[in-house]
Design brief:
The protein is mainly alpha-helical. The protein is 55% helix and 7% strand. The protein has helices at 16-29, 41-44, 51-68, 85-94, 99-103, 106-112, 121-135, 149-166, 211-219, 236-249, 253-259, 265-292, 294-323, and strands at residues 3-7, 34-39, 75-79, 141-143, 174-176. The two termini are 35 Å apart. Bound molecules: adenosine-5'-tetraphosphate. Adenosine-5'-tetraphosphate binds next to helix 1.
């Protein structure tokens, strides 16, 4: 039985990359492990958010977790903002984190590019809060997409530094990154990962896109030169579309390539759009049903926060004692 934790920022509607990178692996781990699945709403405010949208997106993320199969009786589901120990530990870890190691975080560099001095301190610092999220619960496994690997490694470095300085306190978390589907690329640009905050919605397939939108986005998807429906390292656009096809159908890439031998990109894209829509339809129906019951979602989050807070406070008592602030 391992402690497992993950969270998805409520910065917009979640997309299929978020689903396959972090949500589906959590659902699979639900049997036989102790899971914490939170909504990192304090991470979300590292970039400007409309308050009403942030609240809506927090509830939406919760509905997605439940629709995907997360069972709040077995998994502790909670919003980061209701467990203040996250920000408390985040501050303490800030005091042992180094500017240099945060400056090396590639996600920060990507997101800060072109923003000059206008980028928030929170965006720079958010990997430290993420380390606190992980270390607070003695999480051994952290299922994430590959873009978050560097942040989990920072959590390991901070745990190790704290343990050396103050004595054994935190366990070493491991990033858990699936073999296929840990980095779904934008359908408009196979060089950039699919991202909620992409400049164009053509980049991602949202979990709430309607069938016509999915079809339009896939038909407009970038392809590689040539005409063959074949993936591989030299053909990143097709490799990405084939990966999406494989994830939503459970078929292997080789099977999908074979089924499309001699067919045009147009026919392949139509089949891909149909497959994505067939996969999305039942998930969307469940998300909508859960979303309608706001009282139930709030209850799940409040109950989860109570359980999470009990665990978090046990760890924080030790931490406060060790650093000398428990008077
Ligand atoms: N393209 C992706 N493929 C596979 N996994 C992905 N994840 C994100 N994009 C992909 C994984 O989803 C989880 C939640 O991520 P997040 O919302 O906390 O932040 P992120 O990694 O920055 O994801 P986005 O979609 O790019 O969001 P924005 O635009 O708001 O920053 C993580 O486990 C992540 O690895």
């Amino acid at each position: 039985m391992k402690r497992v934790l993950t969270g998805l920022q409520p910065t917009g509607l979640l997309h299929i990359g978020n689903y396959f990178g972090a949500i589906e692996p959590m659902v699979r781990l639900q049997d036989g492990n102790e899971l914490f699945m939170f909504v990192p709403n304090y991470h979300a405010i590292t970039v400007p958010q409309r308050p009403d949208e942030l609240r809506r997106n927090t509830l939406f993320a919760t509905a997605v977790y439940l629709a995907a199969g997360i069972d709040p009786k077995r998994t502790t589901v909670f919003p980061q903002s209701l467990v203040s120990q996250h920000t408390e530990l985040g501050w303490i870890l800030n005091c042992i984190a180094k500017m240099g190691e945060l400056e090396r975080m590639t996600q920060y560099k990507d997101k800060a590019t072109g923003k000059g001095e206008n980028v928030s301190v929170g965006l720079f610092d958010y990997p430290v809060l993420m380390a606190a999220d992980i270390l607070l619960y003695d999480s051994l496994l952290v299922p994430v997409g590959s873009d978050q690997k560097q942040h989990v490694e920072l959590a390991r470095d901070l745990a190790d530094r704290f343990n050396k300085q103050f004595g054994q306190t935190f366990v070493m978390p491991e990033p858990m990154i699936r073999k296929d589907g840990a980095r779904i690329m934008g359908v408009d640009n196979p060089e950039k990962k699919m991202s909620k905050s992409a400049s164009s919605p053509k980049n991602y397939i949202s979990l709430m896109d309607n069938p016509a939108t999915v079809e339009k986005k896939i038909k407009a998807a970038v392809t590689d030169s040539g005409t063959e429906v074949k993936g591989g390292a030299e053909r990143p656009a097709l490799a990405n579309l084939l990966m999406i096809f494989s994830l939503v159908t459970g078929k292997t890439v080789a099977e999908i390539e074979a089924a499309h031998a001699g067919q045009s990109y147009g026919a392949f894209k139509q089949n891909l759009a149909d497959a994505v829509n067939a996969w999305l339809a039942p998930l969307q129906a469940k998300i909508l049903a859960f979303s309608k019951d706001e009282a139930m979602l709030l209850k799940v989050l409040e109950d989860g926060a109570k359980k999470a807070e009990e665990e978090a406070e046990v760890k924080m008592k030790v931490v406060r004692q060790k650093i000398g602030v428990a008077l």
